[in-house]
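Suppose you are handed a protein chain with no further information: no name, no annotation, nothing but its sequence. What can you learn? This example shows the usual starting point.
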Amino acid sequence: MKKIIIAGLALLLTIGLNAQKIKVVEGDISVLKGQSKVLIQYTYNDLKVGKLTEAEYIEKKRKEADERESGGGDKWESAWKADRVEHYKPKFEDLFNKYNDKTNIMVGSSFDDANYIMTIQTDFIEPGWNIGISRSPAFINLTIKIAESANPDTPTVIIELLKSPGSDAMGYDFDSGYRIGEAYAKAGKEFAKMLAKKLK
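A reasonable first move is to predict its three-dimensional structure. Written in structure tokens, the prediction is:
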């Protein structure tokens, strides 16, 4: 029990030292005032994973998985890509929509009639780790682009969301997809809270 408490305190300290930051770097977020729904999409172009490009990271992890088990590389890559749909996307949207009570803006991938489209561009993922005796949270950096649906390639607002942490408070985050998913959950929650302040 003592070890769990110490590990938890160490994790909180790590997260505190690497606090999440959100800022509008271009445009005026007030364009979303009065909107009830926003179409959302996700991109992973030029993604860095740790110190590697995503392609380099996948190659490295595939090789390691194949060394452990024949065909393991294919399984690992499939799981890595499936995490985007199974963990990242639902976690961001669920937490954003849960904490949007002050703005009443809902985000979703089926809102084709929305006036605005929000693109969640993942720039960086630090997967973290949990090997029982040692663990480190995941972190993500996002660029959030908001554009009129009629002109989706020209964003009117750009937001940077840096160092969003992801972990399980009880220490059961052995799967990287779960840890990274929690980073997206934190990002969705904090972005919704930031909008509530900006649009009040």
